[in-house]
Amino acid sequence: MTKIKHPIYDNYPEYPYISPERDLARWEKYPEEFPYSKVEKKNMERLPEGLLPGDIIMLWRIGLGTFNNLSMIPNYFEYKYGINSDESLELLVEKGYAYKASAKESLDMLSIPVLKRILEENNLDKKGKKQDVLERVRDHVSENTLETSFPLRKYVITDAGRAVVTAYDAIIQKHGPKM
Predict the structure, then answer these.
(1) Residue ranges covered by each domain of the chain
(2) Do 69 and 63 contact (CB within 8 A), yes or no?
(3) pLDDT tens-digit profile of 64-93?
């Protein structure tokens, strides 16, 4: 990743990510106005695991169980934490703290109309409540078929990822979990 080097970050351990789409002129004019505020220096200090505080927040969000490859990622990852969210996800997967689930593992995130469409496309009975429909898809539709049936894949936190989230709960509390 190419990071834009800006003089206000010259004394930071590393430069924060600044999106190429960011309005730099406005940001320089209003450096304390969100979303243009300056990334705090402590958010650019790597933890012993090689992660930044923003990576911990990303991992915590994955651990909530609703995060997927189609999720809208809040701009605060860039503006507040100075990270590129796509690269953060790659890093978390690479380090074994999370993984991108298979199609079958992601079925529970689909709506009942999508599940019924999959059953219909595979000439299977589409009647029943969500749990019945979900089980029928899991039991009778192959992973290969599912891979091409829908693009959504959830991210799943691993035990190692949960341990990191637990170890850095103070970062999450400072972020302000919205539960």
Answers:
(1) 7-100+158-175, 104-149
(2) no
(3) 999 999 999 998 898 889 999 999 999 999
